[in-house]
Amino acid sequence: MKAKLIFVWILSLVVPFGLPANSIGVFEEIETELVDRAVVMQLPEGVRRIRVRIRNAEGFWETCTIAHLKGTEGFLKLRLPDGAKEEDIEVAASWTDPFPYDFYAGESKFDPTQTDSNTNRDATAVPETLDGVSTETTVEESDIWKWRDSTLYFFNQYRGLQVIDVTDPAVPKRLASMRIPSGGEQLYLHPTENYVILLTYDGTSGNGQVLLVEHTESDDLAQRAAFPVPGYIVESRLVGSILYVVSRQWWQESIVDPDTGVEHINWQSGLAVSKIDLTDPANPVAGDPLELRSGKYDYWGAQVQATAEALLVSTNAYDSVRRQSTSTVHVVDIADPAVDPAVSHQVAVNGQVLDKFNLRLKDNILTVVSQVWRGSNIRRRYASVETFDLSDSSEEIIEPLAELEFANNESITATRFAGDLLYVVTVLRIDPLFVISLVDPANPKLLGELEVPGFSTHLE
């Protein structure tokens, strides 16, 4: 069965085919009756939308509600904002709608206890099972809140860690809290035990740190361990029960001039990948950090993507010859949890990797989207897609399997991989959506593009 692909286009306006552009926004006032803090109306057949507007203190009309309807005859009741006066209310109907009613009739209420863990899974893959138990390793990204059943864990940068019981959503109750002497943005829950994993900044040492906090049966929060992280934390991933933390750090090097004998102190910046095994949270194990450094460049910034077998860490550096920022993708092997992480490949790409959505590793094929600036007096730019075959781990220099250049003079603003397709949004004065086929990694094909107004920075 072929699955439908539904595209959510952020901050863009689409006029459907077959309807005149000026008919989409036509509304006519209809008769209504005020009942308490609601407006009630009788709908004639064919009405597709109801719009409620309130006049603000400055005298301007603001839309507060738009209801999308099937077009059948009946009655409708809509709640009004508190304090709205009758003379400041306008209710109007439209006999058109940009989309069919089924578009709006999908699921709109969701279980808040189901955390979106941002796991990187292939939607078509069937996880292996052992005696009926899934052996699939999940890859999870951090957040400022996580759910476990009806309990919400919230890492607030002003109030630290808070635990809130939402069994009764109308009466949430705070069960426990813990002050954390620094800002917090990265939180995980242990996959099997009642432990919270917090990534913070240690103001005393100037480095990052990982805190392991137990939520006890008596609803106390007790810090059980703290692990230093070199430099400041850039990104992290929880792969199964193992935490990987990517941080930026600085090294001091002493170089003696052979002619004068004068010692010079140089500073270099690079990245470190720290591994903390939390399989047994009562006895966590931290390994030595893996350093990612270059004798030629100072690495700054990093984009991180992950699978259960590899971390993709993209470092940025300025190439003074090409006069542009370029990226190197470090493929870190994490397939065996018992082995320390190690770099299996270092792949230099055409341009700069802008975010984590520019990277994908699937079936040993690494696909990278990057922004390239041409080396000329006129700083023209384009989008680049490169594929690399990582099957042979003995190769020191990985040459591209294929390259595709497109979107001349435009900047990449959003990308997304979906199966064997890659979607790329670029912008200059218009905002094209490019669709690229990756069915054959050695021959990526540009299938088409769509020009739409607006400025898109994220795709789903």
- The N- and C-terminal alpha carbons lie at a distance of 22 Å
Radius of gyration over C-alpha positions, nearest whole angstrom: 27 Å
Proportion in β-strands: over 45%
Number of helices: 0
Poorly predicted parts: 10-24, 115-134
Indicate the overall shape. Answer: globular
Reported for the largest beta sheet, the result is:
6 strands, antiparallel
Q: Tell me, rounded to a whole number, the average pLDDT.
A: 83
Total count of strands: 35
- Classify the helix fraction into a percent range: under 10%
Based on helices, strands and strand pairing, what is the structural class?
mainly beta
Task: Outline the fold blueprint.
Layout: E1 28-29, E2 33-35, E3 38-43, E4 49-55, E5 61-68, E6 74-79, E7 89-94, E8 129-130, E9 133-134, E10 139-140, E11 145-148, E12 151-156, E13 160-165, E14 173-178, E15 186-189, E16 195-202, E17 207-215, E18 221-229, E19 232-239, E20 242-256, E21 263-277, E22 285-286, E23 290-292, E24 300-306, E25 310-319, E26 324-333, E27 342-348, E28 359-362, E29 365-373, E30 381-389, E31 402-406, E32 411-418, E33 421-427, E34 431-437, E35 445-452
Antiparallel strand pairs: 1-7, 2-3, 3-6, 4-5, 4-7, 8-9, 10-19, 11-12, 12-13, 13-14, 15-16, 16-17, 17-18, 19-20, 20-21, 21-22, 21-23, 24-25, 25-26, 26-27, 28-29, 29-30, 30-31, 32-33, 33-34, 34-35
Written overview of the protein:
The chain is an all-beta fold and 460 residues long. The chain is 0% helix and 50% strand. The chain has strands at residues 28-29, 33-35, 38-43, 49-55, 61-68, 74-79, 89-94, 129-130, 133-134, 139-140, 145-148, 151-156, 160-165, 173-178, 186-189, 195-202, 207-215, 221-229, 232-239, 242-256, 263-277, 285-286, 290-292, 300-306, 310-319, 324-333, 342-348, 359-362, 365-373, 381-389, 402-406, 411-418, 421-427, 431-437, 445-452. Strands 10, 19, 20, 21, 22 and 23 form a 6-stranded antiparallel β-sheet that branches. A 4-stranded antiparallel β-sheet has the order 1-7-4-5, with no helix packed on it. Strands 11-12-13-14 form a 4-stranded antiparallel β-sheet, with no helix packed on it. It is globular, with a radius of gyration of 27 Å. Mean pLDDT is 83; it is low at 10-24 and 115-134.
